[in-house]
Amino acid sequence: MTGALALLAGAGLLATGSLRLASRLASRSTATFLLGAYIVAWGQLVLVLWALSLLGQVSRWPLLGALAVVCAALVADTRGRSDVLARLRDAARELGRALRDPVCAVLAAAAAAALAYALALGLATPQNDFDTLIDHLWRAALWHQNRAAGYPDCACAPYINAYPPHGELGVLATMTLGGVDRYVTLVQAFAYVALPVGVVGVARGLGLSRRESLVGGLLVATLPVIALQASTAQNDLVVASFLVAAAALLLDRGWASPWLAAAATALAVGTKVTAVIGIPLLVAVALAAPLALARGRRLLAVVGGAALGSYWYAVNWWQTGSWDGGFPYETLERDVAATVARVLRSSVQFVELPGGVGRDRWLFVVAAALVAVGLVLRGRTRVAALAALLASAPVVTLEVRRYVDEAYVELWQALGRDDLAAEVGRDITRSAANVTWYGPLGALMLVTGLVVTLVTVRRGRLPRVAALLALAPLYWLVALSALLFYQDAAGRFFMAPMAVAAASWGLVARRRWAAWGLTSIAVTALALAVLNDTKRPSGLALLERPAPPSYFAEPRWRAQGKEVFVPELIRLVDERVPAGARIGLAITPSDPGYVVLGRGLRRFELFPSGRSDAPGASWVFASASARSPGRPKLCAAWSTLAAEPDGWTVYRRVAPRC
After folding, report:
1. How far apart, in whole angstroms, are the C-alpha atoms of residue 195 and residue 245?
2. Buried (b) or exposed (e) across 211-244, using 16+ Cβ within 10 A?
3. Strand 649-653 relative to strand 619-622: parallel, antiparallel, unpaired?
4. What's the sign of the alpha-carbon dihedral 106, 110, 115, 116?
5. Could you tell me if 478 and 570 lie in one domain?
6. CA distance 335 to 441
7. Does residue 306 sit within a domain?
8. Which whole-number Å values give the CA distances from 77 to 27, 74, 119, 263, 516, in the listed order?
9. For 195-232, what is each residue's pLDDT tens digit?
10. Which of 256, 329, 335, 330 lies closest to 297, judged by CA?
11. In sequence order, what are the residues at sequence separation of 6 or more whose Cβ sits closer than 8 angstroms to the Cβ of residue 302?
12. What H or E segment, with its residue span, contains residue 638?
């Protein structure tokens, strides 16, 4: 309970100071006001954590104290000059008016349900994504152990030091204040809310109405990979929220908006390497935005923010002599044909139906029928027919994908490049936070939204920058394919360009039949992706039966153990090792050390070879890879357990000292 209260107190301090400062810095736009507060809050958190890290004081009470000091300073600085309550009331009124539109109301209800489910899933169940356990949480746990973020000398996973740190700093804050890893999901959950707000901000900057802007933002919130990641401790939503916020602030007329955009850019670059791909896009937005007089400031903001956020690459160079920290990369063929092949293979991945297993794909027809009935009852027969036809379209996705896969292979075979004719390959009905892309709505709107936006711009009804944003996914596709090897799970890297492109999706929804058809697809695809998550199934049987067991009922040892292949080790730890026990770890970079810490984040020490004792530890866990060429030679104060769970050797202290 103390941890939960501390977390609430920390969030309250961040929100209070950030909202007050944002009310002074941001323009009258509700979206940019909220985005400004989001960026200021993150900026506070990052600066406070780095300051405390220099002193080795990242723990609950110093962190709360530092946040309280910053909050008090911001409140004092804005005293008598802040109108937070008035702006929040205005925001509530504007939202209420927009939600009078039934389309907006349905989409908002679906997004709210997705957020509530993500919070329930993230708070009540253990994280079980491989990258999350091996990289993100392990890095934050090392910092939590050391009471400082930084570059720990850890042979257990040296490459995680190379990653930009901002996402894990947020995770560290939840661990520090909460005292457990239960709350790590809150970082991405907040980003899940910020991302559609950013889309609304971009749309308003382009001149779309409040209703059209809200439709675009809410449609983004229903996209499968975005909704699935809201319950995880990954960082793709976080970096996307920063990039989209930067784009929205660059389009805003507020006097301080360029500098908030600079902060958002710095936060993005300091979160994930893929944010660098977004810098040319932000530069283009800065140059193409309609506000010609502020063009120099906007350009300076992007360049300066990118330079500021790149500080971790300088740290990597200082520590390792390499800007990327010596991170191992796969060999990449850089000839034109190979790059084009990667572009085409990734394009094919947009054609998918996550969660549409077996008979469940017919739920699109069921939803279409319900929409049609509702519209007919309101006397909209023609609209009902067109909406139902559009809403039913995703049922042919599997057939379309088979055709596209075959066409890709035949293309390269016809060109005599059998080496590039490999099948794209993956189960397009599989739903999971790390492999899912954007579902039928994403594929449909990538094409339709682009065409409608280009036509509208050509007619002079939208600024040219709208066309630039609509083309962002295509630019990102080419840039990513030129820089990185092909990954069928790279969909999560496209969140930012998909979001800025979605800013003009409200144009498509101007036609009521299109609005209702897209809403039906969005809500159905969201439900299928979330409820039929293959890694974390809801247990709810839809049309396809029987449903797999609910993830909510799985113990930690099974939930995480299946992902990192050590279920019996985790089970032994959970059942036999006291929550407050200090442990020793003899592991290598390939070993999942994080799962041994438990939800309460046991204190630990790394146990190098040649040592005979682990002072203060009562248990030692040695992986099979760490035992080569021989087991750790512990003194007589230690007893070896007969069982070797999943090949690990477990030692228990039987005497106070050697």
Report:
1. 8
2. bbbbbbbbbbbbbbbbbbbbbbbbbbbbbbbbbb
3. antiparallel
4. positive
5. no
6. 33
7. yes
8. 18, 5, 35, 20, 47
9. 999 999 999 999 999 999 999 999 999 999 999 999 99
10. 256
11. 246, 250, 261, 262, 265, 279, 282, 283, 286
12. strand 638-640
User: Distance between CA 324 and CA 305 in Å, rounded?
Assistant: 19
Closest CA to 23 of 74, 94, 99: 74
| Enclosing domain of residue 32 | 2-320
How many angstroms separate the most distant Cα atoms in the chain? 86
| Residue-level pLDDT at 624 | 86
Q: How far is CA 290 from CA 28, 163, 217, 454, in A?
A: 18, 36, 22, 17
Distances (CA, A) of 553 to 125, 557, 558, 565: 9, 12, 10, 19
Kindly state whether residue 545 falls inside one of the protein's structural domains: no
**152 and 282 within one domain:** yes
Q: What is this structure's pTM?
A: 0.96
The two tokens of residue 143 are: 């910092």
Same domain, 353 and 312: no
| 166-178 and 30-55 helices, crossing angle to 10° | 70
The pLDDT value recorded for residue 590 is 82
Instruction: Using DSSP, state whether 604 is helix, strand or coil.
Output: strand
Looking at the fold, whether 274 and 363 belong to one and the same domain comes out as no
Amino acid identity at 555 = P
- 512/510 Cα distance (integer angstroms): 6
Burial class, 630, CB count within 10 angstroms (exposed 0-12 / middle 13-18 / buried 19+): exposed
Structural tokens at position 71: 């909050």
As given in the structure block, the two tokens for residue 5 are 């209260």
* Distance separating alpha carbons of residues 73 and 82, to the nearest angstrom: 14
pLDDT for position 629: 60
Residue 640: both structure tokens together: 């070896």
Taking the C-alpha atoms of residue 319 and residue 317, their distance in angstroms, rounded to an integer, is 5
* Rounded Cα–Cα distance for residues 205 and 503 (Å): 9
